[in-house]
Amino acid sequence: xxxxxxxxxxxxxxxxxxxxxxxxxxxxxxxxxxxxxxxxxxxxxxxxxxxxxxxxxxxxxxxxxxxxxxxxxxxxxxxxxxxxxxxxxxxxxxxxxxxxxxxxxxxxxxxxxxxxxxxxxxxxxxxxxxxxxxxxxxxxxxxxxxxxxxxxxxxxxxxxxxxxxxxxxxxxxxxxxxxxxxxxxxxxxxxxxxxxxxxxxxxxxxxxxxxxxxxxxxxxxxxxxxxxxxxxxxxxxxxxxxxxxxxxxxxxxxxxxxxxxxxxxxxxxxxxxxxxxxxxxxxxxxxxxxxxxxxxxxxxxxxxxxxxxxxxxxxxxxxxxxxxxxxxxxxxxxxxxxxxxxxxxxxxxxxxxxxxxxxxxxxxxxxxxxxxxxxxxxxxxxxxxxxxxxxxxxxxxxxxxxxxxxxxxxxxxxxxxxxxxxxxxxxxxxxxxxxxxxxxxxxxxxxxxxxxxxxxxxxxxxx
Length: 463
What we know:
Layout: E1 2-5, H1 9-17, H2 23-41, E2 47-52, H3 56-68, E3 73-78, H4 85-96, E4 100-102, E5 113-117, H5 129-140, E6 144-148, E7 169-173, E8 176-177, H6 186-189, E9 191-195, H7 201-204, E10 210-212, E11 235-239, H8 244-255, E12 261-265, E13 278-280, E14 289-292, E15 311-313, H9 323-326, E16 332-334, H10 338-347, H11 355-360, H12 362-372, E17 377-380, E18 385-389, E19 392-396, H13 408-422, H14 426-439, H15 453-459
Parallel strand pairs: 1-8, 2-3, 2-5, 3-4, 5-6, 6-7, 7-9, 10-19, 11-12, 11-14, 12-13, 14-15, 15-16, 16-17
Antiparallel strand pairs: 1-10, 17-18, 18-19
Helix pairs in contact: 2-3, 3-4, 8-13, 13-14
C-alpha cells in the first residue's frame, strides 16, 4: 500500500525547513529523474523537445535540458519568460551551454520525444487558448510523451481544464498525487513513476488519508487448517430477483472463491443452476453473509435485510429506500457504479448531483458519504475502484477496460461476498475482492473485446 497526497507543497516545504534542501536541489533531482529515464529508454542523438512553462515545472525542464545537452539533439520551447528567480537561474545555466531554444512551435513536430514541463500539480484554472493549442499540437505528435510531475492541464482533482497532455509516462516528483488516479485522467497519465527529491520517500512523505492499493496487498484466503469443515469456511446467501442471471453470476463467483458454501435465495425454481450451488426460499441457518441487489428488481422479501449478518449490497438496492435501514447496521459493504451512487446520495439526503459532476470529483463525493456513514465500507466502481472506510480512501488502479462487460460487477460482488462469508472484516473483504477482480484480467490480451463475465469466473481458480 502506497501513500497518495492531494497536494505536496507542504512536503516540499518540509524539505526546505527540516532538511535544509534548497529549491535548486529539488529541481536538480527532478531533472535527473527524467534524464535517467530517458537514458534508459531513448537511444543517443534522438531529437527531444522540452516544452517549458514559466513556473517551477518549466524550471525543471530547463534542468533536464542541461542534463541532456550533447547526448541528444535537444530543443527547448519557452512559453514565456521565467517568473521566478530560480527559473531565471536555470535559464541562464542552460543558455551558457548554447542550448537550442525556440519561442514558436512549428506546425508539424518532428521529434522522437516530447517532455511536457508546462505546468506541474496545482493548476486551479482553465487553460487559455494559447496553452490549449500547444497541448493539442503536442498530443497530435507520434513522439514518445513524458509528463513532468503531472500532465499539464490536469487540476488537483484530475479534471482536465478543459484538456490535458496525454503522456505515455508520467514522472511525478516526491510522492504520488491524487489527481493521477482520477477516472477521467486514466487515459492521460500513462505509466506512473515516482522520483525522489533528495530524500527517500519514507522521509519525504507524512501522514495521509489516501492510499494506493498494490497487487501485493491481495492476501488470498488459502486454507491452512487441516481439521475444518465447509460450514466453518463460511456460507454466502445470494438473493436472486427479477434478472436471475445477475444473481447466478454472483453466486458462481463466490462459489469459486473463499467461502465453503453458496446458496441462491429465490421463491422460484432457477433453471440450469450449477450443481455446486444450493437453492432455498429463505436464509439457511448456517448463513454467514448475504449478497443482495444484483438483478433484484422491486419485488423481493424485505425481511432479508432485517438481520445482523454481514452484507454486500449492490445494483438495484441503490434505488430503493429500504437501503436506509441497512445503512444503520454494522458490517455493510456497498458497491455502486457512478449512476447508482448518485441515486444513493440523493436517497440519503446528502446531495443531488448528476453522474458527470460525480465523475469530476469522485473522492469529494465519496468523502461526503463517509462523513455521514463512517462505519460503512463503500466501493465506488469505475476505471479505478475507490474504497472508502472511516474517512480513509484506498484506490485500486489495476483495472482495465476488459472489465467493462455485463456481469463484471456481479462477479465483484461474489468475490467480496464470499470473503465476507469466509469471515474477513468488511474492509478486508472489499480490498481482497477488489484486487482479485482486477487481477482476473491479467492473462487476457490487452484491450480484448471478447471477455465475458463467465470467462472472469473461470480465472478465479488461477489467482
